[in-house]
Amino acid sequence: MIDLAYIREHPDEVKKAMEALNTTAPIDEILELDAHRREILREVESLRAQRNRVSKEIPRIKDPEEKQRRIAEMRQVGERIKALETELGPVEERLRQRLLEVPNLPDPSVPIGPDESHNVVVRQEGELPSFDFEPLPHWELGETLDIIDFDRGVKISGSRFYILKGLGAKLQRAVINWMLDVHIQFHGYTEVYPPFLVRRECLYGTAQLPKFADNLYFDSEDDLWLVPTAEVPVTNMYREEIIPEEKLPIYHTAYTACFRREKMSAGKDTRGIKRGHQFDKVELVKFVKPETSMDELMSLIHDAEDICRRLGLTYRIVQMCTGDLSFSAAVKYDIEVWAPGCQEWLEVSSCSNFKDFQARRANIRYRPAGGGRPQFVHTLNGSGLALPRTMIAIMETYQQKDGSIVVPEVLRPYMGGVEVIR
Q1: Rounded distance between C-alpha atoms, residue 157 and residue 111, angstroms
Q2: What is the pLDDT of residues 314-346, one digit of tens each?
Q3: What's 401's DSSP letter?
Q4: Is 350 a catalytic residue?
Q5: Are 201 and 363 in contact (CB under 8 A)?
Q6: Active site residue: 293, 316, 389, 396, which one?
Q7: Cβ-contact 227, 208 below 8 angstroms
Q8: DSSP 81-137
Q9: Catalytic: which of 98, 160, 239, 260?
Q10: Strands 190-192 and 250-259, bridge-based pairing
Q11: Strand order of the sheet with strand 278-288?
């Protein structure tokens, strides 16, 4: 959530930012509601001051008629205050709802552009792998090796579901466990295992609601929502809390299954396991002081890309332009791995600095060690990494001419010593 005072003081700048984001937001309505709210509050404050002053004067009035007249006046003042307070509630709620619809402001470092075609490739690590045979896409490899069952996944749950079998299931489990260990042992994260169901307010806190409600799964009876990413429960661990400054920064990593309706990608990537309504992911979440958040973003990118490097995958870092930023990110970099069978770059991590946008929505603050008012933390998150696209890159990069897949060396201890999937 953007600071209301900032919108009030810099309306033209905020509107210009919305144009750069290639979106619209109810800025004019917010300003009107804010002006109306402040007008009501001013009148209420003035009437309360008047009532307090006259209430002190009434006992000293000698004339009974004058005293009764003043009492009657104050009764009318009290009724007016009640009427104004009744009017204030809906105005404040409408204002709050409209503020929730405003995306984060892009950082000045973000390149201006209307859509993904203006994203900037910052660097590429590794050469595109070459083969002395025609590399197969993962869906052919998976079916031939009997480690992915598409038909039975659809039979059980419908389109965009599949089953990992045998060494396919073991490989994904190995990747997840290995990634968690790397982030814990080498990058300084503390592992948490959060619930996969969250309350509605948690999704407002991380800004999936209200904008993306159609892409979420939920239980209407208990109003509990399946997590679209571990970012939601992990960020909300500190919801409505004030963290002592000495405890910052806080780094958490978490594995969860993730659940998203792929409505926005209807008709895209229907083959294979690239897009599914359910997928696994290891997430990285940071809570930091504002002055360190951009450095923490670079560190977060390093932690995520270290997984690609250790796996021996070719990858690149891409900075999102304004038109391709997520709703809540002030600045965002994607990590994309090369899938030689699909012949495309696949996003396996989006590393974002939200600044105080999520912290304002979830009311996550820290108390400065030297005293003073609590300040909003800055939150960051990124995948470290997302499955199944990491699986796709491994399968297609390490495939052999005979259709087998070599297990990356770092994963073999997690595979019980299996070196090749045949």
Answers
A1: 41
A2: 999 999 999 999 999 999 999 999 999 999 999
A3: T
A4: yes
A5: no
A6: 389
A7: no
A8: HHHHHHHHHHHHHHHHHHHHTSPPPPPTTSPP-SSGGG-EEEEEESPPP--SS-PPP
A9: 260
A10: parallel
A11: 120-125, 315-319, 331-339, 344-355, 378-386, 278-288, 250-259, 190-192
Amino acid (1-letter code) at residue 95? L
Quote the CA–CA distance of 104 and 350 in Å, as a whole number. Answer: 16
Question: For residue 193, which amino acid is it?
Answer: Y
**248-278: pLDDT as tens digits:** 999 999 999 999 998 655 556 678 999 999 9
> Is 347 annotated as catalytic?
yes
Which residues are registered as beta bridge partners of 191? 253
297, 284 Cβ separation under 8 angstroms: no
Tell how far CA 103 is from the center of its chain. Answer: 12
Sign of CA dihedral 258, 259, 260, 266: positive
Structure-token match 């208990």, residue found: 222
Any catalytic annotation for residue 125?
no
Residues 386, 284 contacting (CB under 8 angstroms): no
What lies within 8 Å, CB to CB, of 72 at 6+ separation is none
Q: How many whole angstroms separate alpha carbon 228 and alpha carbon 236? A: 14
Residue 382 and residue 317 in contact, taking contact as beta carbons nearer than 8 Å: no
Confidence of residue 113 (pLDDT cuts 50, 70, 90): very high
Task: Tell me whether residue 184 is exposed, middle or buried, using C-beta atoms within 10 angstroms of its C-beta: 0 to 12, 13 to 18, 19 or more.
Answer: middle
pLDDT at res. 371: 87
Among residues 293, 299, 328, 350, which one is catalytic?
Answer: 350
User: What is the residue type of 215?
Assistant: N
Instruction: Confirm whether 13 is a catalytic residue.
Output: no
